[in-house]
Design goal:
Largest sheet of chain A: 9 strands, mixed
CATH architecture of chain B: 2-Layer Sandwich
Largest interface: A-B, 55 and 38 residues
Helix content of chain A: 25-40%
Number of helices of chain A: 15
Number of strands of chain B: 6
Number of domains of chain B: 1
Strand order of the largest sheet of chain B: 1-6
Oligomer: heterodimer
Bound molecules: flavin-adenine dinucleotide
Chain lengths: 432, 97
């Protein structure tokens, strides 16, 4: 027994969720080890990515400080893309230039490495190059993990699963079933190098100001979300589609990405750019209804492993970090009474329930089903809007009243009035 | 416009991989006979890195594991794939992420 490798807490995965948990625990003097399968934290990790400042409160002081962030976002655009056009809305606000900045574009391979450094400074031990193979369970209680290192069994009071969307760990414990193809999006992204001045000119910004564009619509064959984010000397361009739609449309994420790059609204923004990296990653999109069981004796699940992504708002890393912090705080409370049973660890769920994490996920709990079942919403409406805009803006001697009539006629033919009313009610019900 | 599309091989070439020459593939087909009667053969087109290919001569699925970025798509789309992570430290290592 005595030469067993033992820690207070084992964190599996050095993404934002795991590193937030480890930093909070280490700061309170807990002996915590983080096990990461990549060569360094971030090596396997991908996001768009927009990173929100607020979630770092109480974890890392004065974020971003020396953290490797790219640009602070001052303008957000939302586009509904049709074959040769888009309709969009934009919000640009000088208030977003005020510090602390609301959010930054980031690269995860750099950010996670930096975050791991902060966790180490606080006293956590980060072990890279190591895969956690399975949990060690005794009397239905998780007491450690097996790794792919020789003599690689490690023991602890609590194991925190921060192992991301595939979370083989929580699956092997039966806390969730296998992911379904309707509950994950597969996203591909390119980092496209461009001169800083060109980016500033094309996106109408200066200094470290940045722009984000979220893109969906009838240009894509299924439930799809694309994005363009400005970095200092590159733009991140990516697109993700629900896996079920990939299977049905036979267009994979790279096919989508290539066709998106050719779109007349997008091509000029990246013209002359040099692709520097090609990335692919899953996004858990099942929402509140598909969340796994979050705790059992000696075990808590955080971040993507727990399906905590609010995809309609492009938020994931902040939910991951907040859940990691709550898991750590729950451990600290449990350690006071030296009881790590499910009954005590349940406090983690209460903390989540009282926070934006579960409140937001609950708010949109019907949206994944709605968007998946009702193809009209992301296909027919964007097309109709683009057609209507084109019709109204084209000056060709036809009176506006007649144009409106034509638009209504198309809308009635394509969708139908009763369907439109039903859709409005359904949308309102799913987001109220 | 077709000719401006970037080839997938060229994209994958940009990425930093550490290939596990000793351990070999982390991906395996559980039962090759199942593939023979699989009508959809979704593995051939869902993977953004084209890890799965059909060998026309043998009619068998070939796995280019060295192109895999470990996203897990094939694991969810097909239950005839035995999917593991590469050994610690091997596989993709993104520079940007
Ligand atoms: C294309 C894309 C765009 C996105 N855009 C945004 C955005 O703009 N803003 C935003 O907030 N969120 C965004 N997200 C979501 C966000 O990336 C995730 O919600 C967030 O990364 C979740 O953090 P995590 O720590 O839970 O998981 P991850 O970041 O996935 O970390 C999991 C870690 O565990 C490790 N690991 C897994 N299994 C094992 C094992 N068995 N042994 C050892 N280590 C293991 C992995 O290597 C990894 O380091 C995006 C996601 C994608 C894919």
């Amino acid at each position: 027994m005595s030469n067993k490798l033992r820690y207070d807490v084992i964190v599996v995965g050095a993404g934002p969720a795991g590193l937030a948990a480890a930093t909070v625990l280490a700061k309170s003097g807990v002996k915590v080890i983080v096990i990461e399968r990549g060569r360094f934290p971030g090596a396997k990790n991908v996001m768009g990515g927009v990173f929100y400042t607020d979630c770092m409160k109480g974890i890392v002081d004065e974020f971003p400080g020396k953290a490797p962030v790219e640009r602070h976002v001052i303008e957000e655009r939302m586009w509904l893309l049709d074959d040769n056009s888009h309709v969009g809305i934009t919000h640009k606000n000088e208030m977003f230039n005020k510090e602390p900045h609301n959010c930054y574009t980031v690269f995860r391979a750099k950010l996670d490495k930096w975050f791991a450094g902060e966790a180490e400074k606080a006293g956590a031990l980060i072990i890279n190059n190591t895969v956690v193979l399975e949990p060690i369970v005794e009397n239905n209680k998780v007491i450690g993990v097996k790794t792919d290192r020789p003599q690689g069994d490690i023991y602890a009071n609590v194991v925190i699963a921060a192992d991301g969307v595939n979370s083989l760990l929580s699956k092997s414990l039966g806390l969730r079933k296998e992911l379904k193809s309707k509950d994950v999006a597969i996203a591909a992204k390119e980092v496209i190098g461009l001169n800083e001045d060109i980016i500033n000119e094309r996106f109408n910004v200066k200094g470290s100001e940045g722009v984000t564009i979220e893109i969906t619509g009838s240009f894509f064959p299924g439930e799809t979300m694309g994005f363009i984010y400005t970095n200092k000397k590159s733009v991140s361009l990516g697109v993700g589609m629900i896996l079920e739609d990939v299977i049905n449309s036979k267009m994979n994420a790279n096919d989508l990405l290539e066709s998106m790059k050719q779109h007349p609204s997008i091509a000029p923004l990246i013209a002359g750019g040099q692709t520097k990296e090609f990335l692919v990653h899953l996004i858990p999109e099942g929402g509140y209804k598909e969340m796994p069981k979050l705790v059992m004796d000696g075990f808590m699940v955080v971040g993507d492993a727990a399906m905590m992504v609010n995809s309609i708002h492009r938020e994931g890393s902040n939910l991951a970090i907040t859940s990691g912090r709550y898991a750590a705080e729950t451990y600290l409370e449990a350690a006071k009474i030296n009881d790590f049973s499910e009954n005590v660890l349940k406090k983690y769920i209460h903390k989540l329930n009282n926070s934006f994490v579960i409140k937001d996920l609950k708010k949109y709990k019907n949206l994944p089903d709605l968007l998946q079942k009702d193809k009209r919403l992301l296909q027919k409406y964007p097309r109709l809007l683009n057609q209507a805009a084109f019709e109204l803006l084209t000056v060709n001697g036809i009176p506006k009243k007649e144009k409106e009539k034509m638009i209504w006629k198309t809308a009635k033919k394509e969708i139908g009035i009763s369907n439109m009313i039903k859709d409005l009610i359904k949308i309102w019900r799913s987001v109220k | 416009m077709e000719e401006c599309k970037m080839r997938l091989e060229d994209k994958l070439y940009l990425n930093g991989y550490k290939i596990d020459e000793i351990g070999g593939s982390h991906l395996h087909i559980k039962d090759p006979d199942v593939c023979k009667t699989c009508e959809l053969k979704q593995c051939l087109y869902i993977c953004a890195c084209k890890v799965y290919e059909l060998d026309e001569n043998t009619d068998k699925i070939v796995i280019n594991y060295d192109a895999c970025v470990e996203c897990g798509t094939c694991r969810i789309a097909c239950d005839n794939i035995d999917w593991k992570y590469p050994r610690g430290g091997f596989g993709i290592a993104y520079k940007f992420g």
